[in-house]
Prior knowledge:
By secondary structure, the protein is an all-alpha fold.
Amino acid sequence: MDYQEIEKIVKQRLSQKRYEHSKGVAKRAEELAIIYGEDEQIAKKIGILHDIAKEMSKQEGFHYAKEHGIQFDEIEQKEVGLWHSKLGEDIAIKQFGFTKEMARAILYHTTGNIKMNTMEKIIYVADKTDETRTMINREEAVQISNNNLDDGVLYIAKFMMEYSLKKDSLIHPDTVLLVNQLIEQKRNNKPYKSYNNIIEN
Ligand SMILES: [Fe+2]
Ligand SMILES: [Fe+2]
């Protein structure tokens, strides 16, 4: 299915607001794909489709999951807002002909994951930095993520953790693992005084 066809179906299935967000994510994913040397057409397709399952009711989602053998982990079971990642991954493959690899970017777009490849990171970042996003300091997030993709992922993952905590939402362990991984990576890449050094000095 080409981008135009996917966009048409997304427009029919989602609210105007979410359709605008999806178009924004497609555009932002395209920008990031150009910067980081990934396929822009694929980035756009994943971007426009990433929230396809977001407006399913809890009941619809529950039935879809049951019918298609999708299992939610302990945290997902308690946070309905996380369901659309796994549901969207499955829908992308079965209804839109996405490859497993493309669909994995939809699977990881909400919580992030330590196994994310460049395209998956692009979609994760695009989802939080598209033009319709107002919850984050968008200008800063765009600047950081255009300069270094991992820095962008870390900035956003930290923001999302804080945002979830403020709302008393549960934090998915995948997000915690991702933040830890990127903080460690940053430490190892830059000269810094380790805890032991500080004590010795
Ligand atoms: Fe989403
Ligand atoms: Fe989204």
